[in-house]
Amino acid sequence: MPINARVFIIDDDAAVRDSLAFLLSTSGFAVTPFETAEHFLDALPRLGFGCVITDIRMPDIDGIELLKRVKATAGHLPVIVMTGHGDVPLAVEAMKLGAIDFMEKPFEDERLINVLHAAFEQSTKATKVAADASELAARLASLSPRERQVLNGLVAGLSNKEIAREYEISPRTVEVYRANVMTKMQAGSISELVRQAIRSGALGD
């Protein structure tokens, strides 16, 4: 979990906000409470990354509507919803809309802490996957049309001679393009190149 990971608490009940803020701040989280969903949404563009904890039943914009708006404008933020007794169907709806978990009141402090740790760990992994995909796409985009053809041939298991025949170029030229592809894709072996192509969806392009 990131040091001083930020948590945004949205609940119209001041006692709940204060209790959660105390619990989480003493557990190493940087907490920012909000009385209403409107206040949170107004501040959202300036908040940066953090985990959202919101009550489901609130006046005006409730937790479900808040979740929809967060996912539409800041889909990278993990959202945990808090529900009262009998609100489990709403919590299930929230999960379908993208909430990572729900906490049925009253809940144990330790469970909330564990859910938050899992949320930040999951988000860190997702961010790394997205960054890796972006980097891989940039490597593919750097290939020339001929280098892309040679890449397709390599991941299809063709030899240099077979690729040369396919595209009517010399085997020596294929070797040059092959070396360029390996360098640009930062692949140390053909097997690694194939894995990259599979991850990027480049096979057959």
In short, what is this structure?
By secondary structure, the chain is an alpha/beta fold. It has helices at 14-25, 37-43, 63-73, 88-96, 109-141, 145-155, 160-167, 171-185, 190-200; strands spanning 6-10, 30-34, 51-55, 79-83, 101-104. The protein folds into 2 domains: 6-132, Response regulator (Rossmann fold); 142-200, Winged helix-like DNA-binding domain superfamily/Winged helix DNA-binding domain (Arc Repressor Mutant, subunit A, Orthogonal Bundle), CATH 1.10.10.
Spell out the CATH superfamily of the largest domain.
Response regulator
Mean residue pLDDT? 86
- Please name the CATH topology of the largest domain: Rossmann fold
* Whole-number total of structural domains: 2
Query: The biggest beta sheet, please?
Result: 5 strands, parallel
Number of helical stretches of at least 4 residues:
9
Global geometry: elongated
Task: Output the helix-strand order.
Answer: EHEHEHEHEHHHHH
Radius of gyration: 25 Å
Determine and state the CATH class of the largest domain: Alpha Beta
Low-confidence stretches: none
Q: Examine the secondary-structure arrangement and name the CATH architecture of the largest domain.
A: 3-Layer(aba) Sandwich
**Lateral arrangement of strands in the main beta sheet:** 2-1-3-4-5
Count of DSSP strands: 5
Tell me the β content. Answer: 5-15%
Helix content: 55-70%
Protein name: DNA-binding response regulator
Keywords: DNA-binding, Phosphoprotein, Transcription, Transcription regulation, Two-component regulatory system
Pfam families: GerE, Response_reg
GO molecular function, one term: DNA binding
